[in-house]
Design goal:
This protein is 23% helix and 36% strand. By secondary structure, it is of the alpha+beta class. It has a single domain (7-140), classed as Roll (Thiol Ester Dehydrase, Chain A), CATH 3.10.129.10. Strands 1, 2, 3, 4, 5 and 6 form a six-stranded antiparallel β-sheet that branches. A hairpin with a 2-residue loop joins strand 4 (117-126) and strand 5.
C-alpha cells in the first residue's frame, strides 16, 4: 500500500516533519459542537478570565488530537497508532484577534524488532510554551 511507512524505513533518531496548526475561536466552537464539550472557558473570554485564565483556551483533547496527526501523517495510517498518551503542561491560549499557532514535531526514540513497532516522542509548543509533556505514540509499522 502506497504511503504506509515500513519498519525497515525507520531508524531511532528519525525526525518527523514539523507541522504548524492554527487554532482560532471558530475552531474552538466547531470542536465544542463535535465533542459536546461546551465549557465556557473555550469560547467566553469574560468567563475564562473570571476563573483565572489569561484568555479563552483550546480544549485539551483538541490539542492532543492535533498533536497526534504529525504521527498519523508520518506513518501513513492513523489506525497503526496502537497507543498514545500525554500530559497537559500548559493551555493553548487563543486570543480573539489572532488565534494561536501550535507547532508539533516528533522523534523516533525506540524500535521494537519483534513487534515491528516504533515509539515516537511528540513535541507541542505554542509560542515559547511547551503545551504537552510526555507525549508518546507507539506505531505498528508494516
Amino acid at each position: 500500500m502506497a504511503g504506509i511507512r515500513t519498519f525497515d524505513q525507520v531508524r531511532v533518531g528519525d525526525e518527523l516533519p514539523r507541522k504548524q496548526v492554527h487554532v482560532d475561536r471558530a475552531t474552538l466552537v466547531q470542536y465544542a459542537g463535535a465533542s459536546l464539550d461546551r465549557n465556557r472557558i473555550h469560547w467566553d473570554e469574560r468567563f475564562a478570565t473570571k476563573v483565572g485564565l489569561p484568555n479563552v483556551i483550546a480544549h485539551g483533547m483538541w490539542t492532543m488530537g492535533a498533536a497526534v496527526t504529525v504521527v498519523s501523517e508520518w506513518c501513513g495510517d492513523a489506525g497503526r497508532i496502537v497507543r498514545y498518551g500525554t500530559r497537559f503542561t500548559r493551555p493553548v491560549v487563543v486570543p480573539y484577534e489572532t488565534g494561536a499557532d501550535v507547532v508539533f514535531s516528533g522523534t523516533v526514540t525506540a524500535l521494537d524488532v519483534q513487534s515491528r513497532q516504533a515509539t515516537v516522542e511528540i513535541s507541542a509548543t505554542c509560542g515559547e510554551d511547551k503545551v504537552l509533556g510526555k507525549a508518546t505514540a507507539v506505531v505498528a509499522l508494516a
